[in-house]
Hints:
Blueprint: H1 7-19, H2 25-35, H3 39-50, H4 55-59, E1 61-64, E2 67-70, H5 83-92, E3 98-102, H6 108-117, E4 121-126, H7 129-139, E5 145-148, E6 163-168, H8 183-188, H9 202-209, E7 215-225, H10 230-239, E8 243-249, E9 254-260
Parallel strand pairs: 3-4, 3-6, 4-5, 6-7
Antiparallel strand pairs: 1-2, 7-9, 8-9
Helix pairs in contact: 1-2, 1-3, 5-6
The chain binds S-adenosylmethionine (SAM).
Amino acid sequence: MGYINKQGTIKSIIQRLKMAGCVFAEEEAQLLISEAETLDELFKMVDKRVLGLPIEHILGWADFCGIRIDIATGVFVPRRRTEFLVEKAADCIFQGGIVVDLCCGSGAIGVAIAKAVGCINLYATDIDPIAVQCAQRNILKINGQVYEGDLYNPLPVKIRRRVDMIVANAPYVPTESIKFLPQDFRNHESRIALDGGDDGLSIQRRVVSESSVWLAQGGHILVETSKLQAHRTIEIFTQNGFSTRLEYNAELDAYIVIGEKA
Ligand SMILES: C[S@@+](CC[C@H](N)C(=O)[O-])C[C@H]1O[C@@H](n2cnc3c(N)ncnc32)[C@H](O)[C@@H]1O
């Protein structure tokens, strides 16, 4: 920040961010200032933000559960509401347990569970090679494994029927609703990270129906959903034989369905 010697420069950056519609302009200006090494770099970063790039893609990291998670351009930015999934997951798992993070994106969920619990055996998968590379950077730090492929397909056979917990924040936006998402995310996160099919639940259905091959007896599966979809997510769980409950966090507006394998 030493390179900025005029208070007016900071004010004009905040002003530009506000005019571009950034709700947290002051906070974002401070983040950009602390990340940039030169004035020229700072102005380039501000230009990108004004054009609508998510702040996390500009910084190259996101804060999730108080942890700095690397975020590559185009990779889904972990949302604050998903911290509730981590909280509930940490309640269901024990140290040394086997955890599978499906549709892992940057790997934020698995990393945060590991941090909360102390030590887990983490296996994560994602279909997007860019997300997998990004997750590798985050997850290798905690000695987890990251695989590229469709849901459970790339997981090693040795963990079949031994998994203590599956967590998934799979895409759950109905295809037709993608156009209503905030522009920052709609334009800069990959479509495959958002699109949950006609009713938004097509990937969740597969996550739940294919889980019994992997879960140990008494194992848990936790899936993030939305207010509108929660009853249908619950239905998917019960149809697949899980004893099921819904957890809700009003502050984060977060809905998690938790199933336990009998
Ligand atoms: C909503 S994002 C969530 C990412 C991460 N779990 C988080 O909360 O930050 C969904 C992720 O699912 C991945 N994905 C979509 N379809 C998939 C599939 N069939 N198998 C594996 N991953 C998939 C996308 O690439 C994307 O990274």
